Amino acid sequence: MSPFLLSQIIVAIGLIFDLGSVQMRQRHHLIIGQAIAGALISAHFFLLETYTAGWLFAIGVFRLMVSLKWRNRWTLAPFLLFIIGFSAYTYDGYLSIVACTGGLLMTLGSFANSMRSLRLFYIAGSSTWLIHNFLAWTPVGILMEFVFLTSNLVGYYRFFIKNRHGR
Question: What is the Cα gyration radius of the chain?
Fold first, then answer.
């Protein structure tokens, strides 16, 4: 099996975890599902020899796992600073700014104290990454973010809008 084919199988499994995780009601289930998806997506990028993306997703997995136990400004701040610093160091025009914004929003979501805030940050972050992937023209990235965004919107509706109206 070629590395490309294996990478596509791995990212497909990652997409399943992405889709399923945002339908979870409990925060820790959502975060664990996202961490598994991130690890699979990271492996996918490494197989494609796209090392920066692979490392960013690996760091994202670490961030998610840290946010399971600690969600305060002292654990949030280093991740925000790392994203800003890494973005500045690797700056390559407007795409770097969009990526930095998406990374910051997703990180803020990981450390949010309420499920409503977590989902809203994830919706904003995923929307930003979707824009990034359109501008960078990465079809698999577009599909991945579209699925994640749609699933987050459905989850937000199910848990916060539908229940509020007593349905």
Answer: 16
